[in-house]
Amino acid sequence: MAEMDIQDCIKEIDEIDTLIPEIMKNVDFTTLIDIFGMELNLTMSQFHAFMNISNNDGCSMGSLAENMSLSSATVTGLVDRLIKKDLITRMHDQSDRRMVTVWLTEKGKNIFYNYKKMRMKFMELILIKMGNENRENFISLLRTTNQIIKDLIKDGKFMELINHTSKLEKEQKEI
User: Fold this and answer.
1) 72: which of 13, 113, 135, 175 is 20 to 30 A away, CA to CA?
2) Of 36, 26, 25, the residue nearest 114 (C-alpha)
3) pLDDT band for position 36 (cuts 50, 70, 90)
4) What's the sign of the alpha-carbon dihedral 7, 8, 12, 13?
């Protein structure tokens, strides 16, 4: 396979850098909440905490902080605000009072269920509109991209690739 022309690569990177944030905004929770007609009144951070708890009901405050890559103090503030909205509850372990877990309330479970159901319908429509071949290619490309990124991170080859790309760029300029 021929090496990609650097200029073509730069154009494609620019397009990717435009498309990914645009797609993310279009499937962002605030956009979807508006589309679904749901009243949540959550900040993005509160929503991420809510979703993390929804997917790990009964998780400890420490694991929530770790999963969200936030400090314990920041997570405590998010949890406090979600408790005030009656979406979650905090419980102390009876055998170890230092251990605190967070759980969805009934209201939180209902909101999570309705949001997830509506989001699944939304994503289903997108995938149906893609058609079988495009959908299969799309999912395959996402898996491949994800694996390449994981491998590069695991192998620590980012700098090697950057140096290789710079070398190719220099060679192309000399031609």
Assistant:
1) 113
2) 36
3) confident
4) negative
